[in-house]
Amino acid sequence: MEIRVIGAGLAGSEAALVISAAGIPVRLYEMRPLKMTPAHKSDHFAELVCSNSLGSVKETDGKGLLKKELEIYGSNLLEIAKRMSVPAGKALAVDRWAFQTAVTEFIMRRRNVEIVREEVKRIEEDVPTVVATGPLTSDALATYLGEVLGEEHLFFYDAISPIVEADSLDFSKGFFANRYEEGGEDYLNFPMTEEEFDRFYEELVKADRVAPHPFEDERYFESCMPIEVLASRGRETLLFGPMRPVGLIDPRTGKRPFCVVQLRRENREGTMYNMVGFQTRLTYPEQKRVFRLIPGFENARFFRYGSIHRNTYLNSPSFLEPTLEWRGHEGIFFAGQLIGVEGYVESIASGLVAGINVVRRVTGENPLVFPDETMTGALLGYVSRGRGKDFQPMNANFGLLPLPSGRVRKSERRRLQARRALEKAREFRDLHFNFQPLCVI
Question: Could you give the C-alpha distances from 355 to 75, 84, 349, 441, in angstroms and in order?
Fold first, then answer.
């Protein structure tokens, strides 16, 4: 028996490795480089097209708790990410190129994985399959899915932050520090005075933007809002958003700056920096002009300008089981941002679950429903049982988890939720996992 995985992004790569670890042949389909997307730059698997950060590692943060659970379950991509990490305070960030290269090479070395470079335009429902084509699903497959699911697919817009060449920045105008002095000095901060900010703000809100195509209805995911869209909501939005100075002290003045532009190292060598929270759809010339108004950016050179692309996702509660199996279509599973999970780690988690469950299905066992008390189970419960017409993408957060029983102080709530989630995850693994998903050794 062979299992197909369509799409070699984060979810598809994780699913393929999980299936391979179970000793079942995998046929992994990836249309790149024969057909590229508006955002991908290579034919590598698990390419990170937005930030290079996989988010917090603290178990009292949604993404951090999800990572802890993935460690318990045996996630392949999380293990590779840890090996390819770069300093990022209390977050897990990776050397983008090293990470995607390692994932690609590891999959290609698996003897029971066959790689097929072609576009898949429809699903063969008599073949066990994991569909993980991501937010940049091809038009042909998206059209097919819209037809067979009986409703129009939905979409939102995702914007990418610029990456700046380190030696083009004036480091004398910045300082290294993490907010609240947590975890070393992994972020580069460029402070601005109120006068400097006002000038920057005025130019930002009037800068030219890339016009949407006539068929595009502009909708954005709130946690990935373009910087200029935030600015258009009012001056204070930036000061309480990505440019907030809270928790930072400029060592040159001993005071908190009026505002800051924060950068995170993009690679191990420290030659590239990502502008944190500066995702944008400004035109390239305007990005160069406006961002060079930031003190320290006067001669900035950009490895990558910010850009914007349409992200497709499905109204998953209308057709998806909590196991990630297509309701009424045994053996067909979906994973990744296509189902409405938002974020890198969330995509990896869905790929792991889909991989485990498609293996169980083809070996005669029922797919698993992960516990609601875990972040994994709560997230997949949301995408399978959320409100239909109001459904929107969701990332891992503690609002998805059930509250602890009894009267609990707010300051203790997350710690108790996290402890319960990890205990449930270990119990669930020990009780139900009949093979080890992790094959990266």
Answer: 11, 23, 10, 18
Give the dihedral of Cα atoms 153, 15, 348, 134; nearest 10 deg: -30
Taking only the tens of pLDDT, the chain with its 441 residues reads: 899 999 999 999 999 999 999 999 999 999 999 999 988 889 999 999 888 999 999 999 999 999 999 999 999 999 999 999 999 999 999 999 999 999 999 999 999 999 999 999 999 999 999 999 999 999 899 989 989 987 666 676 767 899 999 999 999 999 999 887 665 678 999 999 999 999 999 999 999 998 765 545 666 777 678 999 999 999 999 999 999 999 999 999 999 999 999 999 988 888 889 999 999 999 999 999 999 999 999 999 998 899 877 788 999 999 999 999 999 999 999 999 999 999 999 999 999 999 999 999 999 999 999 999 999 999 999 999 976 666 878 899 998 999 888 888 877 999 999 999 999 999 999 999 999 999 987
Fill in the amino acid letter for 213. Answer: H
Do 178 and 89 form a contact (C-beta atoms < 8 A)? yes
**pTM of the predicted model, to two decimals?**
0.87
Q: Which domains are assigned to the chain?
A: 3-153+314-432 (3.50.50.60), 160-308 (2.40.30.260)
